[in-house]
Design the sequence.
């Protein structure tokens, strides 16, 4: 059976690419430390030596739209074009082309449906920065085949937080029952407190540093019970109007397992939002 | 009231570089053109299949025609769609980093929780 060699949860900050590649007067003062943190985070994936990446993210109204909105969608395609015109325009993100791992996509779809998740699928999915940001930060070679999984954290009505956790637990079970000898890393990105298009946006820190502190604690200690007892669809409005992206972190806590402490934790307090990086090694820390 | 149609405007304009410029330069004209053409089109389906019932209220049409992101927020337009399109149109006028983004938020400061409902 396939082995999960790393579980990684990260924020996806679309400005990283521009900040890390800028030079001279254009280089922001926080770039060097940010890059150093990313390089350390990247090493946690590199040393796990994965063959395949299962990538959890959320489309930002690029391909998925309100006339036909799936809650959970799995890409099943041999290739994925990546990044869109408006991401190039606003963030300077490059266009990418990633290979797909269709066998694992097919397995997750079939077995996921039978396990109680009515997953939507796409045979032509152009992925966006929720998945390309961790490619850029964690695997800039973009050389590994992927299985993209999109969640709806964006267009209400949304699934309940516990459903994200359950999907993460199911992804863990499915990957570990996939008849393959490949080494799989599961990588998901979301947000801590975040405000977009509201009065609290683009402040000197994230909109709710206290929520961020508690969220990092929940994730780092694997405190799913504590997290689930406090986080609801309604409660997530309070830390910032885009904080429902935190549910993708909860999904990754489900992949990592209740009570499972993260093997690597780092954060970076930036303008607008706090960055947060977590890695678990379910089968032991690689040498 | 159609939050959906407001969002459809923001979504279809934001994804088209020519429409972004057209909306920046001629908001009222673009909104009028859009509502009778692209806005009536069922996206990603057979061509020629147009809505028989979707239209803006006067308030919605006015908010779009005035580039009034504060009014759009109050009407429950999706804040991400509004922000993304308005950054595309107006960030270029910044004289310092994030100037437009900060002013955009400042103009919304009279809103407190709960914000207008964005469910469609």
Sequence:
């Amino acid at each position: 059976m396939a082995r999960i060699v790393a579980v990684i949860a990260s924020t996806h900050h679309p400005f990283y690419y521009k900040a890390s590649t800028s030079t001279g007067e254009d280089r922001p003062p926080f770039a060097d430390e940010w890059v150093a943190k990313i390089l350390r985070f990247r090493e946690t994936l590199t040393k796990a030596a994965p063959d395949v990446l299962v990538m959890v993210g959320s489309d930002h109204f690029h391909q998925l739209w309100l006339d036909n909105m799936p809650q959970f969608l799995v890409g099943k395609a041999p290739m994925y074009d990546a990044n869109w015109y408006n991401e190039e325009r606003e963030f300077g993100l490059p266009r990418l082309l990633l290979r797909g791992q269709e066998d694992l996509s097919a397995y997750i779809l079939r077995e996921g449906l039978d396990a109680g998740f009515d997953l939507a699928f796409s045979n032509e999915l152009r992925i966006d920065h929720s998945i390309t940001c961790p490619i850029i930060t964690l695997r800039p070679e973009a050389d590994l085949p992927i299985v993209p999984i999109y969640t709806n954290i964006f267009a209400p009505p949304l699934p309940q937080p516990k459903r994200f956790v359950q999907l993460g637990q199911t992804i863990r079970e499915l990957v570990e029952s996939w008849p393959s000898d490949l080494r799989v890393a599961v990588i998901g990105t979301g947000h801590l407190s975040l405000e977009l298009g509201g009065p609290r946006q683009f402040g000197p820190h994230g909109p709710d540093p206290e929520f961020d502190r508690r969220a990092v604690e929940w994730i780092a200690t694997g405190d799913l019970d504590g997290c689930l007892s406090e986080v609801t669809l309604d409660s997530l409005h309070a830390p910032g109007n885009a904080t429902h992206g935190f549910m993708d972190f909860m999904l990754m806590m489900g992949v990592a397992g209740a009570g499972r402490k993260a093997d690597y934790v780092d954060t970076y307090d930036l303008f607008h939002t706090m960055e947060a990086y977590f890695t678990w090694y379910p089968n032991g820390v690689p040498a | 009231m159609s939050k959906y149609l407001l969002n459809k405007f923001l979504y279809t304009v934001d994804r088209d570089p020519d429409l972004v410029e057209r909306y920046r330069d001629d908001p009222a004209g673009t909104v009028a053109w859009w509502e009778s053409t692209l806005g009536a089109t069922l996206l990603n389906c057979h061509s020629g299949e147009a809505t028989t019932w979707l239209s803006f209220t006067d308030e919605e049409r006015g908010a779009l025609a005035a580039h009034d992101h504060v009014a759009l927020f109050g009407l429950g337009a999706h804040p991400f769609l509004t922000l993304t399109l308005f950054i595309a149109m107006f960030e270029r006028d910044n004289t310092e980093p994030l100037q437009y983004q900060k002013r955009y938020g400042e103009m919304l400061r009279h809103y407190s929780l709960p914000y207008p409902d964005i469910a469609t």
Summary: The CA atoms of residues 70 and 105 of chain B lie 9 Å apart. Chain B has one domain: 3-106. Chain B touches chain A at residues 4, 7-8, 11, 14-15, 17, 42-44, 69, 73, 78-84, 87-88, 91, 98, 101-102, 104-106, 108-111, 113-115, 118-120 (CB under 8 Å).
